[in-house]
Amino acid sequence: xxxxxxxxxxxxxxxxxxxxxxxxxxxxxxxxxxxxxxxxxxxxxxxxxxxxxxxxxxxxxxxxxxxxxxxxxxxxxxxxxxxxxxxxxxxxxxxxxxxxxxxxxxxxxxxxxxxxxxxxxxxxxxxxxxxxxxxxxxxxxxxxxxxxxxxxxxxxxxxxxxxxxxxxxxxxxxxxxxxxxxxxxxxxxxxxxxxxxxxxxxxxxxxxxxxxxxxxxxxxxxxxxxxxxxxxxxxxxxxxxxxxxxxxxxxxxxxxxxxxxxxxxxxxxxxxxxxxxxxxxxxxxxxxxxxxxxxxxxxxxxxxxxxxxxxxxxxxxxxxxxxxxxxxxxxxxxxxxxxxxxxxxxxxxxxxxxxxxxxxxxxxxxxxxxxxxxxxxxxxxxxxxxxxxxxxxxxxxxxxxxxxxxxxxxxxxxxxxxxxxxxxxxxxxxxxxxxxxx
Amino acid sequence: xxxxxxxxxxxxxxxxxxxxxxxxxxxxxxxxxxxxxxxxxxxxxxxxxxxxxxxxxxxxxxxxxxxxxxxxxxxxxxxxxxxxxxxxxxxxxxxxxxxxxxxxxxxxxxxxxxxxxxxxxxxxxxxxxxxxxxxxxxxxxxxxxxxxxxxxxxxxxxxxxxxxxxxxxxxxxxxxxxxxxxxxxxxxxxxxxxxxxxxxxxxxxxxxxxxxxxxxxxxxxxxxxxxxxxxxxxxxxxxxxxxxxxxxxxxxxxxxxxxxxxxxxxxxxxxxxxxxxxxxxxxxxxxxxxxxxxxxxxxxxxxxxxxxxxxxxxxxxxxxxxxxxxxxxxxxxxxxxxxxxxxxxxxxxxxxxxxxxxxxxxxxxxxxxxxxxxxxxxxxxxxxxxxxxxxxxxxxxxxxxxxxxxxxxxxxxxxxxxxxxxxxxxxxxxxxxxxxxx
Amino acid sequence: xxxxxxxxxxxxxxxxxxxxxxxxxxxxxxxxxxxxxxxxxxxxxxxxxxxxxxxxxxxxxxxxxxxxxxxxxxxxxxxxxxxxxxxxxxxxxxxxxxxxxxxxxxxxxxxxxxxxxxxxxxxxxxxxxxxxxxxxxxxxxxxxxxxx
Amino acid sequence: xxxxxxxxxxxxxxxxxxxxxxxxxxxxxxxxxxxxxxxxxxxxxxxxxxxxxxxxxxxxxxxxxxxxxxxxxxxxxxxxxxxxxxxxxxxxxxxxxxxxxxxxxxxxxxxxxxxxxxxxxxxxxxxxxxxxxxxxxxxxxxxxxxxx
Lengths: 438, 438, 148, 148
Fold this sequence. Notes:
The complex is a heterotetramer, with 2 copies of chain A and 2 copies of chain C. By secondary structure, chain A is of the alpha+beta class. Chain A has 3 domains: 3-102, Rossmann fold (3-Layer(aba) Sandwich); 131-200, Dna Ligase, domain 1; 206-434, D-amino Acid Aminotransferase, Chain A, domain 1. Chain A is built from 15 helices and 20 strands. In chain A, the strands form 5 sheets. Chain A has an 8-stranded antiparallel beta sheet with strand order 13-12-9-10-11-14-19-17, with helices on both faces. A 5-stranded parallel beta sheet of chain A has the order 3-2-1-4-5. Chain A has a 3-stranded antiparallel beta sheet with strand order 7-6-8, with helices on one face. In chain A, helix 6 packs across helix 9 and helix 12 packs antiparallel against helix 13. Chain C is α+β, with helices and mostly antiparallel strands. Chain C has a single domain (6-147), classed as CATH 2.40.50.100. Chain C is 27% helix and 34% strand. Chain C contains 2 helices and 10 strands; from the N terminus they run H-E-E-H-E-E-E-E-E-E-E-E. Chain C is elongated and about 65 Å long. Chain C starts with 5 loop residues before the first helix and ends with a strand. Residues 36-65 of chain C have low confidence and may be disordered. The chains are: A alpha+beta, C alpha+beta. Chain A binds chain B through residues 14-15, 18-19, 21-24, 43, 296, 299, 303-305, 307, 320, 329-330, 349-350, 352-360, 363-364, 382-384, 388, 391-392, 395, 398-399, and chain B through 14-15, 18-19, 21-24, 43, 296, 299, 303-305, 307, 320, 329-330, 349-350, 352-360, 363-364, 382-384, 388, 391-392, 395, 398-399.
């Protein structure tokens, strides 16, 4: 019997354990001292404490994670989302230890971690990209020339960065120099590399991403797009598939080029390509070389279990990549339920019933500590149409009960009930615009 | 805003309320004194006590149900399953009171309640039927002739009956007379009509049924079959779709003839046609002119919300009947979780996660009384294949927690793990055969 | 459990010998304190509370007696409650009326049928509990009566 | 369990010799207190409780002393626990050994690295808590020691 260690916590760890149980694979959970009562710890076949509450000493503690996997005789490690899931060096250490890393090869992760390299590859594969950003900025003169060519506003980005760090939006030439210096400083501080590139900045884009699954052996399938334009400070709140703004023509373009890119990368596992879409422009942003929080939305429209597929691919077992891309059906939507305070959950009742799914690590009595991500649960619904999903989601969220701490349930209902959200005509600035009403 | 009264209790009442909320229709729950803490009572917009614990004075109390609907200004009544859902006289009283009955017309229910008439119509529409049973048995001589023609074993049935009452299996001619008399007595006692008909008795059949949806206006769609062969004393325990024994050819035959029958009946709403399948024989049994407990199985393979559709059809609103029959996808399976004792539920945790659905009226603290049906919850899963459904169901049932009373969860896991069940090669005698092992 | 009000808590505290009382119930949180200076009163009140407890017990027994004396007449069906046979007619009964066994108390209309509810015993009508023309549920109290 | 009411709690407290009563039930949380001065009866009971509290304190302080004397040495990492540098070598420590600060206690192997765990103080080894060659978690107790 195979055995897999889950190098993560919370709902994604629970999600992965369910997939392992489905495949009759043993599961090893890890936890920090703050998480000893975690639902994933209870659900796994075995569990190992890997450090104190602080992530850097537990969920990011590569040595303890790999030791735990080796000593519990695991065959593989699933990195989940966040933490070490996009760390090429972690993937390499896992592989070097003789374990399977459930995800792309460390080489692929490294290539895609270099944002300039990723843009060049994306363009080559035929994906639409914003002007600029194909080489590192050498100096201020070079930057000025590039900015003038691209046209303001522009954005400066750390080539090896992510998560908004080392990014600077520049509206006019006189701000270039100070922004360049600040971006370099931040990039060096956070990513130990001050390479900076410049791109056109889109002011009111939609966030669109496509889900792919590949077996590393020239088989790539496309599971449609997700629209994640409802964001609060770059944090996604609501995701759905299909997007209200992606037409069949654009979808086919993205599909062909995405599959081409993944084939060229010899990509293995689940991956997402992110785009910004503004008016008629659709621009490649980056590849997330891992599973994403919002993957259930694609699971519901494709009827595929993506975590199961990832594991099957990693073990070179039968998987869905050799079949044609699945026919996508209906509409699906996800709302992230976040904690707005910490404390003990005195009552938890998930929403149930037809076409409603709840992925969570909550249970009555669990303590929500301040150490980690605030996401408590994902509620995912499917339906024939977008409007049916909105209505079903509102019913589900009204049914859901979380007592003991504050959450964004009511706010989510308010967003779903908002006229502009319902119209489907909005962009990533929506949350800020309607913040006061919701 | 429209308003609907749910003339039922338990999980089906909860299911119907969720559909009403989805459609933004007000819901009125009814309850007996024993059910005042029912989940459906808490979930509905309004609730009305309709009688004491005993069903005959509450959930079967036509006058109180219709009064409750009229006085709370409802537009319609949904009868759910069981209780008055197949009562032509109730449907007529509802309609005569100026309310909409969410289901077929009372005339259709009456026709289908006459099993001889139903068999004649089914044969005319091209559905395969067992030999015999097209006329009432006049006397013993007539019975002997018919039995000889059909061949033993035969089964005597009450023409206006159901639920196993007034039924007698006869192996040889010398038993005919006493069985005929007993069947007549029982039929008179239970159904106030001693009309008896005779059919060929199948000794090791599978129970197969097809789900249809019709708008009463010549539009009928076919949602595939369900296999309900795992039964304990004629009570279904596990249902799935598609059936492991129905091939594409048989499915198409059933589809064409079923649609024809429903068109001829001018059927309106959701309906099921039941068959027994033995070797190469597939025989019509009866039409259930209502929604069934196991409808979620068909919902998951067709992606249609059947309760929503029923309501939309009843109100002559946009529904899926005018579209082609949906393409069926993957596999779905349902397990009924039943109470084996009564008492307070001290802990309830439903199974959650991908491709798992739980329809239930349970919550921590509710009291399970001895007055009604023992079904506590339905767990429904979907997957790419039958085997994936079995594995996912086992994972889900192991995750489910019901404390305070005894249930059949472990026994269900044992059936799912049984070799013969897994093989797909069994019939309605399976439960009895493996009873000792499970 | 019925809701607890601020008045009830303070009244209870007033009648008690307690020095401090801290009650949390749902959204309500009440702390009552009595300082030593007030204790002379309290001591007196303590002296009083002993018989008071007895008195309470008497009240309870009185209540038990009440329970025998007072009862409610409940609806046997789901219907509309009318106190008179027609809008123009006088009510069958009103508060304070003495009723004999068999007298009509009200009409319960259900499915266009007028069902007269009659007294099963002799009572005095203490209170009419349902509004005129309202939907009444099964077993809903319609009248509070005093047994004669 | 039937619902508890505020009245019942206060009445019960009134009839008792308690100085303090703290009841939580469902949404209800009630604390009743009676100060020493409040009643003569209570004062007696206070006289009784006083030594009781002291006794408790002694017990606690004894436990605290225990806690100071005995402690566990826990694993700082996830690894394999070895009491000796190799299978043929004698163990670094055994039960009853007196250990000086800086002495090696065991080896924790992690990712093919041998990490020696050394004593931070002088102790006597009371018990070795992990089996030889076993996987040890972060913070898992490895030795019970007595501080010298």
